[in-house]
Design brief:
The protein is built from 14 helices and 26 strands. By secondary structure, the chain is an alpha/beta fold. It has four domains: 63 residues, Roll (SH3 type barrels), CATH 2.30.30; 271 residues, Ribonuclease Inhibitor (Leucine-rich repeat, LRR (right-handed beta-alpha superhelix)), CATH 3.80.10; 49 residues, no CATH class; 82 residues, Phosphatidylinositol 3-kinase Catalytic Subunit, Chain A, domain 1 (Ubiquitin-like (UB roll)). Helix 9 crosses helix 12. The chain starts with 12 loop residues before the first strand and ends with a strand.
């Protein structure tokens, strides 16, 4: 803490106890003595007013009660980077004394002075600091870089720096620190509310080797990202969650090396904003949790075709959004490289009450998906999902103009829009037979449930599991459930069952397309799982 007010105090970040804020006013306040700081607090509950006092507006706040006045000696304006490093890693002067590097040592009653011990201690500190590769000074009140070139002389081997939740007020301060770290690869400056350049600035080589950058909760907007990105020629991962990003722009000649982009907790204007970043050539992972999007479309590709957008995208997270229509899930099949999807907590998932059926529908709709909501999709599970999908919507296909004879098979555009993968499933497994469709029950029908015990004879240490399953559930579906329930590695399951009515006899469940009731299984029977 300091009672001195820095000459550049206006706009600086300060802390007071555990609270953080920005100085919006420096000066006197009517009918009071001395100097005051007007602070807009990050947490409005810490404040008292909107920056006005007795009818005079001294500064403005975004929240009507987000500001207050404090004395300068209550404000912490922070320390330089190297001071914070030494304090965090126990390499400052006070700790040297504590561990016995004073200039004098007492032998009995005789005091012996060691000349030059200060310089020796300093050399030891330099050696220890130079060994540091990963440095974290999170919440250490870092506000400035310090003396020029001091960091490069002292911490020459740093590669990964965590500067999150400090008192950094501007991007220029970050550049001043990074420019002294020759091989900087990872930088986290999240939770620093700072000013970013609003116009094109001269290129800096400070981030020439940077691969991972976190700017979460920094109040950055997308135009500022693109301006700064001119200095990130090798960046591979960019984290921008919880900022003020609502609209996007096409990143021309920047971010072309990006493999991961996190835009979580930014309320995007609409799903079409994604088209503006759809041509990042190397983007493999896109995180869009809680971004407010309600639909996804790739209008450049028709039914059953692949889009030219997001050519390298393998992993997509769209959980906690407002997607209500299955058509958005259909659109995801257009992504040529998509392998992993997270989509929990979207309204479309409420349209199907049975969670197993819900998972099957998503798997059947996206042909190349290998991981859904962090669960691996095994080949047997995909086959079961696609066969069931083909059967469930078979009558709709017929009514829409579908036919077993390829010459007469002309399903309507409406059907293809709702089920764009249906023709390819018919090619893969054949058109559904009339006998299959006659026995189809609607998805919403509550079938009779069987209470079964699941055992693994080859793993006696694994406790039996009791599970309620519909008697109309196919063996293929049961296998898919057991893969996830028992966390069995990718291999072919062999199922059989034992019944009290068939003592000593084990019946194989050998036809994947038959329902449980085909085998006369009853509640209380035991299903045996082998692989």
């Amino acid at each position: 803490m300091t009672a001195c007010v820095p000459p550049d105090a206006l706009g600086r970040r300060v802390s007071c106890g555990t609270d953080y804020g920005t100085v919006r006013y420096v000066g006197s306040v009517s009918r009071t003595a001395g100097m005051w700081l007007g602070v807009e607090w990050d947490d409005p509950q810490r404040g008292k007013h909107d920056g006005s006092y007795e009818g005079t507006q001294y500064f403005k706040c975004r929240h009507p009660k987000g500001g207050s006045f404090i004395r300068p000696n209550k404000a912490n304006f922070g320390v330089d980077f190297l001071t914070a490093v030494k304090e965090r890693y126990g390499l400052n002067d006070k700790q040297d004394v504590q561990y016995g590097t004073e200039n004098t040592v007492v032998f009995g009653t005789k005091t012996v002075e060691f000349v030059g011990m200060d310089s020796v201690a300093e050399q030891q500190r330099q050696v220890q600091l130079n060994k540091l590769v990963d440095i974290s000074v999170r919440e250490c009140a870092v506000s400035r870089a310090g003396q020029q070139e001091e960091i490069s002389r002292t911490c020459a081997n740093m590669r990964h720096i965590n500067l999150s939740k400090n008192l950094i007020s501007s991007w220029e301060t970050v550049i001043a620190i990074a420019s002294q770290v020759q091989n900087l690869e990872t930088l986290n400056v999240s939770e620093n509310k700072m000013k970013f350049p609003s116009t094109s600035t001269s290129m800096s080589s400070a981030f020439s080797n940077l691969k991972i950058l976190a700017l979460n909760q920094t109040e950055i907007i997308w135009t500022e990202v693109l301006l700064c990105a001119q200095g990130w020629p090798k960046l591979e991962e960019l984290y921008l969650s919880s900022n003020n990003i609502t609209v996007l722009e096409r990143p021309d000649n920047v971010l072309q090396t990006l493999k991961l982009l996190d835009l979580s907790d930014n309320q995007l204007l609409d799903g079409n904003q994604l088209h503006l970043i759809a041509h990042l050539p190397r983007l493999e992972q896109l995180i869009l949790r809680n971004t407010g999007i309600s639909s996804i479309q790739f209008p450049d590709a028709g039914f059953g075709c692949k889009t030219k957008m997001f050519p390298s995208l393998r992993r997509l997270a769209i959980n906690d959004n407002k997607i209500s229509q299955w058509s958005s899930i259909n659109e995801l099949d257009k992504l040529p490289s998509l392998r992993s999807l997270q989509c929990n907590n979207n309204p479309f998932m409420d349209t199907e009450k049975n969670p197993e059926t819900l998972i099957q529908l998503i798997i059947a709709k996206i042909s190349q998906l290998e991981v859904l909501n962090n669960c691996e999709i095994l080949p047997a599970e995909r086959r079961g999902a696609e066969l069931d999908y083909r059967k469930i919507f078979g009558n709709d296909w017929l009514e829409a103009g579908g036919h077993w004879n390829p010459e007469k098979n002309k399903p309507s555009k409406e059907f293809l829009a709702a089920h764009p993968r249906y023709p390819s499933l018919c090619l893969k497994y054949g058109a559904p037979e009339e006998g299959e469709l006659k026995g189809r029950q609607p998805l919403t029908l509550k079938n009779q449930l069987l209470t079964l015990t699941i055992k693994c004879p080859e793993k006696p240490e694994q406790k039996p599991v009791e599970k309620k399953l519909p008697e109309s559930m196919t063996i293929q579906k049961v296998k898919g459930l057991l893969y996830r329930l028992l966390k069995i590695p990718g291999s072919e399951l062999k199922l059989s069952y034992e019944s009290s009515k068939l003592e000593g006899k084990e019946v194989e469940l050998d036809n994947d397309l038959k329902p449980l009731q085909f085998y006369s299984i009853e509640s209380g029977d035991c299903v045996l799982v082998r692989w």
